[in-house]
Design brief:
This protein is α+β, with helices and mostly antiparallel strands and 99 residues long. The chain is built from two helices and eight strands; from the N terminus they run βββββααβββ. 19% of the residues are buried.
Length: 99
């Protein structure tokens, strides 16, 4: 099961992401995030820290890679296989369907 390293939300479009320690995730998305709404098409976004670090190294990026990516949840790693349609456990209590 992937380990959560960092969580970000943006309460409104075009605002800077805010790092949170704990969040509430529902079928609409992450509570407080501007994408958590009825009929939304992007409830939660994931990114793998190991993949993000590799990209940052390749382009020489020196800042906070998670803030720069603007994805909601940074986990340690993801399998190399195609995850579309699969169920992924994140942390201790969250199960996400990858779409």
């Amino acid at each position: 099961m992937p380990f959560v390293q960092s969580i970000l939300i943006r309460s409104e479009r075009k605002t800077s992401p805010v790092r949170l320690r704990d969040v509430e995730i529902t079928s609409l998305g992450i509570h407080g995030d501007h994408y958590a709404k009825e009929n939304g098409n992007r409830q939660v976004t994931l990114i793998a820290a190991d993949d993000l670090a590799a990209v940052a190294d390749a382009v020489g990026f020196q800042g906070d890679v998670h803030l720069a990516s603007r994805r909601n949840i940074m986990i340690d790693t993801l399998p190399d296989e195609d995850l579309k349609g699969k169920i992924v456990g994140v942390g201790e209590k969250v199960i996400l369907e990858i779409t």
